[in-house]
Description:
By secondary structure, this protein is mainly α. Helix content is about 80%, strand content about 0%. It has helices spanning about 1-25, 30-40, 40-60, 65-85, 90-95, 115-130, 130-150, 155-170. Helix 4 packs antiparallel against helix 6 (about 115-130) and helix 4 (about 65-85) runs antiparallel to helix 8 (about 155-170). It is globular and about 55 Å long. The N and C termini lie far apart (about 40 Å). The model has no long low-confidence stretch (mean pLDDT about 90).
Amino acid sequence: MIIYFHQRKMEETMKNFYTNINRFMWRHSFIKSCTHFASKFCPYVMIIFYFLFLLKMYLNRPNNLLILAFEPICVVCITLILRIIINRKRPAEKYDFKPIDGSRKTGHSFPSIHVAISVSIALAVLRYGPNMGLLLSALSIVITIARILSGVHYISDIIASIIIALIINTI
Length: 171
């Protein structure tokens, strides 16, 4: 009885959290636009910088290229497998509101592939190029926050993605 009450209270808290953020975003167009940009386009910027860094590594230190490319690929594979197995509804889908990025994707919320790959890339690059790694780490933080604020991922999706990236990149 107590567990059920606690679970129900937690569910209501999460619903209020996401619907209030969503309402706030739709009322403030500049913040909504920034969040939309960060959620949709920053992952592409991250990938472009990553490929440029891979090219630099290929030209300067080709021996490290395989490790630098292998870690993010492993993270993507593990994340995709977990998403297929778990198939969790997205906050916008569960609480019935329009996400900031306008997408109406259903399911496959856990874990966030955008966050997992951005954290993994940032960690991999940080090891071989600290300056570029710091830039990509900052971009990864922006992507992480934007995925929550846009209403497409739960906080637990984000935390799991970060943990997956950390584990793979430290092995």
